[in-house]
Amino acid sequence: MIGIILSGHGHFASGLYSSIKLIAGEQENFEIIDYEEGMSADTLSTKLEGAIQNLSSLKDIVVFTDIAGGTPFNESAKLSVVHGNVRVLSGTNAPLLLDSCFKRSVSIDEFMDEIMQSGKEGMKVFKVK
């Protein structure tokens, strides 16, 4: 099973997980870290490290973040250099994260390819015909 850490600005992580839980149920090996106003990057990094340690029994871990270049992404990227089994993804949306909950038993490369596709396909524009 692939471990998941979800982090983002404000209550992005806890809010998105609330939606996922409503649709797919409670998830195991799934850590949620909100980067709240006033929290330092060092504190966030410590929380991310703790989440990685909580999932250390798993072969692979993916950190899902909101914005590339944002603090949750940057701190996760730094930790991925130290922990070779950690991958970091930005631009997380609900379809991508929901799909990830059902594909956690495949190889990490297949997992990343499939969920990236789900994230892209999950974006639609409604047009009145």
Secondary structure layout plus pairing:
Layout: E1 2-9, H1 12-24, E2 30-35, H2 41-54, E3 60-64, H3 71-82, E4 86-89, H4 94-102, H5 108-121
Protein architecture, described:
Pfam families: EIIA-man (PF03610). InterPro entries: Bacterial_PTS_sugar_comp, PTS_EIIA_man-typ, PTS_EIIA_man-typ_sf, PTS_IIA_man. This protein is an alpha/beta fold and 129 residues long. It has a single domain (2-121), classed as 3-Layer(aba) Sandwich (Rossmann fold), CATH 3.40.50.510. The protein is 48% helix and 18% strand. It has five helices and four strands. A four-stranded parallel sheet has the order 2-1-3-4, sandwiched between helices. 32% of the residues are buried.
Quick gist of this model?
With 129 residues, the chain is α/β, with parallel strands linked by helices. The chain is built from five helices and four strands. Strands 2-1-3-4 form a four-stranded parallel sheet, with helices on both faces.
